[in-house]
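Example 3.2
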Amino acid sequence: MSTFSTDQRTSATGGGLPRVSSPGSAPSSPPTHRWRKRRERLTAGTFLAPAVLLVTAFLLAPFVWTVCRSFFSDSRTSTFSWFDNYSLFASDPALSRSIQNTLMWVVGTVLLPFVLGLAIAVMTNATRWSRLARLCVVLPYALSGSAVAVVWNFMLTTDGAVNQVLTTLNLDSLAEGWLLTWPGNTVVMILANAWQAVGVAVILFLVGLQSIPPETLEAGALDGAGSWQQFRHIVLPQLRPVSIIVIGMSLVNGLKSFDLIWVLTQGGPGRATETLAVSMYNETFLELRPGAGAAIAVVLTVIVLAASWLYLRRQLDVKGE
């Protein structure tokens, strides 16, 4: 009787002890949960699809075509020429000068906005006339590069405002054709670009200065630190993230400068003031050498991407990520 009753209880409860899942097996998700995940992914993909298509159509596809075109000659048959277009950087004097000018632009457009922007921001921070000074400095940044070039062309031509002022002051020996001789013409164009670019540097540095806790400066003063020591050991380290942003923006803008140079000199005289961006346009559309222009575009793109990558890596390192 006891054995029979035990068997009945066993069969009634479903055949013994409940099944225990193995430790390595994951619980299966219900079908509704899986369908919800798929629907969310489909919805996200639907919203992302237009942006991906636009980036592919207007950025990736032209870049791939440019890379492919750089390996073909400029003849009518457009035969495959391997690296002949890239060898022009070593054989063409105009491209060698273009590389020199590009390096000059990079150095000038990084140093001048950084140094002048930091100096103006420090001098105009928390002063009575700071608003007026900021307006005067930031106003050129609101102008386009072509408008800035027109203003500086009025000043730098042979009979322009600069030479007329020098003549009025009996300094005729200093008057010259500012846009006619190299490297002076490249230098004055870098100064014109800095006149426009300093505005955004001032704004960024002012934001950084106003975010510094005053307690740190007070603590430095109590420890006997002078103004220069406070600026060097307290202010500058806390402006490091802003400095990276200013340098990164100036670096990229210097590498792709075009409108200011084209309006002022069109790369002349004799292609003496061309940068890589101007040489790319000149080779492709004026000299009708699309293969050489594509090679210049690829090299310039690689330089800009490398500079941007270094800038972003440096910024992430500062944030500790």
